[in-house]
Predict the structure of DUF72 domain-containing protein.
Amino acid sequence: MQDDLFSLDGAEAPAAPAGRRRGVQAMPATPQDQALAAALQPQVHLGTSTWSYPGWEGLVWAGRYSEATLSRTGLPAYAAHPLLRAVGIDRGFYRPLAASEFQRHAEQVPRGFRFTVKAPSLVTDPLMRQEEGRSQGLNPLFLDATTALETFIEPAYEGLGATLGALVFQISPLPASMLSRMNEAFDRLHALLLACPRPPTGVLAVEVRDAAWLTPELVALLRDTGARYCLGLHPKLPPLAEQLPLLRALWPGPLVARWNLNRMHGPFGYETAEKKYGEFAEMLDPDPETRAGLARIIRGTAGAGQEAFITISNKAEGSAPLSVRALAEAIVGG
C-alpha cells in the first residue's frame, strides 16, 4: 500500500429580477468541470489559499468585482464551483478570528465543503515583529498551549463545526538560537498538541519552514498526539519527493497539503511571483512534476478511504483555480 501511495438563518431571500441579480455571481460551470468533479472521490477537497482575487473573472466569477467585495461576499460564488471543495483562511495568521467569524464563513458554503485555517502568528512565530515584519525579540507566547486554545482551537471548533477541514500550525522559521536547541522546540510543540482536544471533524496539522524539523522525532510526536504532517510545498523545504518518507512513516491517515510557492522563485520569492503573475488569471509557470507527485499521493490517500485537504496558492503556477483544475485532471487521469 505504501509503495502504491508514495512510488442566513431563515427563509431564502426572493430571487432578484433578471438583469438585477444581487451579489457576486459565480461563473457557470462547464460540462468538463462538472464531469471532472463527479469523477473525484468525495474524500478529495481541493481549493485555493483564499478567494478574493478580481483576476479570477471568467474562471470563478461571472463579472468584475473589487477585492473588498469578493472578500466580504464572494465565498458563496467561489464554493459554487464544482472543483472548489475547500479554501484556506490565511488571514487568521495575522489576527485571531472569533467563533462568529468562522461561523459566518461556514454558513456560506455547501455540505461537504471544508476550510483549512492557519493558526495565528501570535502562537506560531518564534519572534515578535513590528508592522513591517522586523523582529522585536523572542515571542514569549510561541507554541503556548493556553493561547492556542483560546485564540484558535476553541473559536474554530465552535464556529466551523462540520466544515472544519484542517487547522494548521504553520511554524515560522526559527532563529539560530532555537535551531541549535531543537529539543526545546519539539517539547513545546508536543505539549501544545497534547493540550488540544480532538477536532469535531477534520484534523490538526503541523507545517514547518525549517528542514531541521523533518526528523524521526517529529514523526513520533505526531503519532503520539494524533496530529498530521502538513506537506509544505515551499522552496524553504526539500522538494516533495524528499518529504515522502515522513508521510510514509505516518501512513495511514488523512493528507494535508499546502502548495505555497513555485520552487523557481526561491525561498524568498513571494514578491517576485506576485509581480510576475499579475492578476493570477493564467498559468504562467506550470510545474507538472510537483502536480503529478501530489496527484499520486491524493489518489492513494482517497483510495484508502482517507480524506485529503489540499489548498493551492496563486504563486504555485500563476493561477490557483487553473492549478486546481490541472491537479484534478492529474488525479482522475492517473
Q: What stands out?
A: The CA atoms of residues 1 and 300 lie 8 Å apart.
